Amino acid sequence: MKRLTVFLLIGFSLLLTACNLSLAEDVTPPPWYVSPTPAPTLGPLYPASAPDLANGAVIYSTECAPCHGDTGLGDGPLNKQLSVPVAAIGLPVISQKASPADWFMIVSQGNMARMMPPFSNKLSEQERWDVVAYALSLHASPEMIAQGKQIIAENCAACDMDFFTSQEKMASLSDDDLLGLMVQGSEAFPAFGANLGEDELYSAAAYLRSQTFAAPTPAAVIATPVAPEGYPNPAEGTPPAVAGLGTVRSSVLLSGGNPPAGLTATLRGFDHAMDASGPQEVLTLTASPSKDGSLVFENIELPANRILMVDVEYKGITYQSEMYIVEEGASDVTLTPLNLYETSDDLYALTVDQGHVFLDVSEGQVQIIEFISVVNSGESAILVPVANDMMALAKMPAGTTSLGYDAQQGEASPVDAADGFAIPPSDKVYGLVAGFQMAYDKSAELEIPFVLGMPAESSIFVPVGVKLEGKTLIDMGQQDIGNGTIYQVYGFGPVPADGSLAVSLSGQPNTAAAGTESAPDSRQLVIIGAGALGILLLGLGAWLYLRDRKQNEAGDEEDEDGDEFEDASSVLDAIIAIDDLHRAGKIPAEAHQQRRAELMELYKKLDGRD
């Protein structure tokens, strides 16, 4: 499936989850984007449990390797698409200067100057420590660690190793810091490295670092049995249990009923290779579900940390269960059910829940990025064809060329289909984004078509300094999205299905408004490929709103609503925030509508509209 990564402003707060990407030409990635705002609560800057390298390796292969490369040399497949070099975190010269706490903060909060997205909403705290530990281990070969172990045994046999196994102490120390401690000593242990060479000291540091990791579980070598075709024959009985092996169960349902005959389900198991090349498929079994949809795989080796999943192809769509990581001692594993659906090509069965447009204006061109979040409340999986880097849910505005598209992972995830992707029924939203570009010389007339239309209270963002005019536009004021970058926000909508938004734009971005000496290149306006709710500025709006509310409650709980906000812009932030909270299921629909109406009246009053 072709995916588009599109522009986002530095510090932009999209409440998004992430997706795997392949890229259109001249488009920059990060593969799974999550909002960097508000800054996450990091808690203690050391892991609660010893980092699990095997789990970290699995996370790294999915979240980090596309940019940083399998061995951390900055040579991932997306590297060439980025406007800044990817850090070669696998090189000793880089990783030996970093502490786990340093990289944990970057993984949590992101580093937008280097186009590094944050993962605080994607990964749990322990998962972030796991992947940081794995990244820090990339430069240390088994031979290096073995040499370090020998050096410690020969030079520091009486040292207090509790210091080096303490997560709290070691999380704040880089390998360079450990070299200093080995040479200078500390209260916990004497100096022992004065006569050691630099390579020896770094080997010792690598070994000491390895003592903070959880003990690895060796990957088991398994046989690949062949499952019978068709429905299982009960007369054949259940295969006899084999000591040390276990059972993997799942189920396959078709629109809530029993599956059709002839389906083949594939159980796949993945172990992480010892050569750091990423997870390797070590188990592939096929079987047919029974008439009631149950699916059983007997006599399966279940070593700890093995990743299991089941997939089924039905009418050109590949459905997958959620991935399951085997726990220590597991003997009976149940994977999530696979819900299959009949298919439909009726795109208009989808409804747009939120819609936003971002115009990136730079010298010589304007790029149009459309964000929509859609809901499929029907009973069929909707097929979305893709051709020539275009998905059928996005029409190209006249005079533009396509940058591609991204079928993002929102609250729900699109699934691969033979000629594009599919959107199965769900009460959750799917995030989609499409991008286009056209030549721009001082002014342009633009008509943006929308296949599914756009709902009321959609928005369009342009850099301050660019004049935007349109009959249906409502000036919603300026929005500072951080780093001194300010954008003008306009409301519009509703737009009917197959309708369009006509606007005129002129001028160039006001560089003074951005607080920079020169206009930022569009590549520097960060990228997202990810996904999900498709709502611009929601994270930032929520943070500002909740911060203002907290400050207001602390100062004077008896103030009237009108005194909560300093100006119309802060009311706009609150509107955006409660939309976000409603979408997250934290505010009931009735309460959301009532409060939103109140805030809109207040916004009009403060903005001088009444």
Explain briefly what this protein structure is.
Helix content is 23%, strand content 26%. By secondary structure, the chain is α+β, with helices and mostly antiparallel strands.
Structural notes for this entry:
The structure is a single chain. By secondary structure, the chain is α+β, with helices and mostly antiparallel strands. Among the domains are: 142-210, Cytochrome Bc1 Complex, Chain D, domain 2, CATH 1.10.760; 243-327, Immunoglobulin-like, CATH 2.60.40.10; 347-528, Immunoglobulin-like (Sandwich), CATH 2.60.40; 538-606, no CATH class. The protein has helices at residues 53-63, 65-68, 92-95, 100-109, 125-137, 142-155, 162-165, 167-170, 175-184, 198-210, 538-555, 568-583, 589-606, and strands at 6-7, 246-254, 265-272, 279-287, 294-300, 307-314, 317-320, 324-325, 332-334, 338-340, 343-344, 351-362, 364-375, 381-387, 390-391, 401-407, 415-417, 420-423, 430-440, 443-450, 458-463, 467-469, 474-480, 486-492, 499-506, 527-528. Strands 16-19-13-12-21-24-23 form a seven-stranded mixed beta sheet, with helices on one face. α1 crosses α5 (125-137), α6 (142-155) packs across α10 and α12 (568-583) runs antiparallel to α13. The longest helix has 18 residues, at 538-555. It is globular and about 80 Å long. Mean pLDDT is 75; it is low at 1-43, 218-243 and 513-563.
